[in-house]
Every structure is written in structure tokens, then in C-alpha cells.
Write a structure and sequence with these properties.
It holds the Pfam family gag-asp_proteas. This is Aspartyl protease. It comes from Cellulophaga algicola (strain DSM 14237 / IC166 / ACAM 630). The chain is of the alpha+beta class and 176 residues long. The chain has one domain: Acid Proteases (Cathepsin D, subunit A, domain 1), CATH 2.40.70. Helices cover 19% and strands 45% of the residues. The protein has three helices and 13 strands; from the N terminus they run H-E-E-E-E-E-E-E-H-E-E-E-E-H-E-E. The N terminus is likely disordered.
Length: 176
């Protein structure tokens, strides 16, 4: 087990060292190609039940508490991102916790950031993504091969959660 973790960590470190650092203006990602042939359908629990969560304004971006495979993380609410995106740091953490396994690694994926630059990442399968009382299953996500990449909650997940309403006065995001 330790050998697998070390190998995966070295792989992500190697790829992140060969890539330029991204600045805050190029953090939005858009998937443009996938080499994966594995098909996993999304399912949504509690589809009829509305839920609201508090957003935190951090340096001008809104973060939303999301539970991924049982682990609470703060994601940037990013309508410009096409999918859920996490850094290799979070991917390694989830792997070490046993909440993602080798079977959840789907293969390479290419994505484009807001500057138009194309990068290679790794597509993984998240067993569970939960916001408040709403939960979706079998969600494809991108791992950015950069240790400092932000956590982005993008359109592929947002569309599955349903209608989104934002109250900027109270910093509340609601899903219907």
C-alpha cells in the first residue's frame, strides 16, 4: 500500500514540476478531451428536497462546503468551470484516506484554463459529492497536476444539483 501511495505521489509531483504555475485568473478549467472509455452514470439522492448552505467570501471568490467521499472540503463556486476540479494534493489525501482507489482513476484528461492554455490531468470518479442535504453519486472529476490548484465546483456537478439561487446579502446558496 505504501509503495502505491509513494508511486502515485511521485507521479503527481513529476507532472506538477513540469508545468507552469497557474495564477488566479487562469483557475477556471474546461474539459476539452477525455481518453477514458469508462461510463458512470450520475445519480442524485434527495432530488426533491431543497437545501441551503452558507458561502464564505474569500478574497473575492465564494467558497461552498462540499463533502466528497465523506471528507468535508471548501470548493470555489465556479460557474465558469465545466467540471469538479481538485489538485493533486487533495487527490493524494483522498487516496491515503482510502476514499478513492486505483479503480477510481479513469485515465488522462485534457482541459483548458481561462487563458486558453491546455493541460493534461487525471480523471477520477468520486463516489459521493454532497452539498447540504443533496448528494450525487459517481461524479467524474479532474485532478490538476499542480499541488496548489484550487478546488472548483463546476457545471457538471452544479447541473445535477438542480436550480441554484444565490443570496449575496446573506451569503447563502440554495439548491432546489
Amino acid at each position: 500500500m505504501n509503495k502505491i501511495i509513494l508511486t502515485l505521489f511521485c507521479f503527481f509531483m513529476f507532472l506538477s514540476c513540469n508545468r507552469p504555475n497557474r495564477n488566479s485568473e487562469s483557475e477556471n478549467t474546461k474539459r476539452i478531451n477525455s481518453n477514458s472509455t469508462r461510463d458512470n452514470s450520475l445519480t442524485l439522492n434527495n432530488k426533491k428536497q431543497a437545501t441551503s448552505v452558507h458561502m464564505t467570501n474569500t478574497h473575492g471568490v465564494f467558497e461552498v462546503p462540499i463533502t466528497v467521499n465523506g471528507t468535508l472540503m471548501n470548493f470555489i463556486f465556479d460557474t465558469g468551470a465545466s467540471s469538479i476540479s481538485i489538485s493533486s494534493t487533495e487527490a493524494m489525501f483522498l487516496y491515503k484516506q482510502g476514499t478513492i482507489s486505483d479503480d477510481d482513476i479513469l485515465g488522462s484528461i485534457f482541459f483548458q484554463d481561462a487563458t486558453g492554455a491546455v493541460y493534461e490531468g487525471t480523471q477520477i470518479l468520486l463516489k459521493s459529492v454532497k452539498i447540504g442535504t443533496r448528494e450525487i453519486h459517481n461524479v467524474k472529476a479532474s485532478v490538476v497536476h499542480n499541488l496548489e490548484a484550487p478546488l472548483l465546483l463546476g457545471q457538471s456537478a452544479l447541473g445535477e444539483f438542480g436550480k441554484v439561487t444565490i443570496d449575496y446579502n446573506e451569503n447563502i446558496i440554495s439548491f432546489e
